[in-house]
């Protein structure tokens, strides 16, 4: 667990220099679709994200996470509001990020227990690729830390390929920590 936290802290420090890419769902009338597969020792999950940017400081997102090849587990939904606080909007030129607040219908551990989530996302353009760090803390019947670091690159016009490393850790003794590769596509339209 210490190695994971250290890796995430180093990523934040690397990303905190000048970032130029847009954050996940920010931008005037921006619509985003992302579909990824999370393959881990705890099982495989498909995640579908839909996002809408109201303006360059606020946006909304909805995610559906569905397990497959796992008996007794159900899909969960997450709704989030992404924003840059009023007091931080002037600093966006040097540090591209958004905070997130939202609700969840369930968690990886218990799909029947709803809860709240908070987090942030950072993206940085690297030549023709995009590096991102996405962190969430979900509080429900159990506390879950969900973090992902990865890259996006254009595979066709308007279509980005996504590959990352994801960690979902819980204080539930039966679940523990799920780590694995997250991969899929991202489309802006």
UniProtKB/TrEMBL annotation:
Signal peptide: 1-21
Protein name (record): Outer membrane protein beta-barrel domain-containing protein
Keyword annotations: Signal
